[in-house]
Amino acid sequence: MIDKNEAVEKAQREFARLKECYKRAIEQALAKVPVRDGVVSARDLWLETSLPVDLIAELLKENGIELPPQVKRVDFETARSGRRRKGNRGRHR
């Protein structure tokens, strides 16, 4: 039977492996998404990778992701403002 420490270590190894896969996915997406004046939209990264924007932000903050030379920063404001859309979509008057 697996003891608690072994289970925790196994879960940590799996989490680290997943993070590496996610980092590679973001690096590949950075090469594909449009760059506007050195800025990449987090929304574009989300569309390309299907990873949650919060996870993309966390992985970028860890500094393990290589930004291409043409990318100076990733803009998260446009990604967040897209979630707060309000309107009368679907309402009939």
Helix share, percent: 40-55%
What's the number of extended β-strand segments?
2
β-sheet strand percentage: 5-15%
Our count of helices gives 4
Coarse morphology: flat
Structural class category: mainly alpha
What's the SSE pattern?
A: HEHHEH
- The termini sit apart by 64 Å
Spatial strand arrangement across the major sheet:
1-2
Task: Return Rg in Å.
Answer: 18 Å
General description of the model:
The protein has 93 residues and is mainly alpha-helical. It has a domain at 20-76. It has helices spanning 4-32, 42-49, 53-61, 77-81; strands spanning 39-41, 73-75. It has a two-stranded parallel ribbon with strand order 1-2. The protein is flat and about 55 Å long. The N and C termini lie far apart (64 Å).
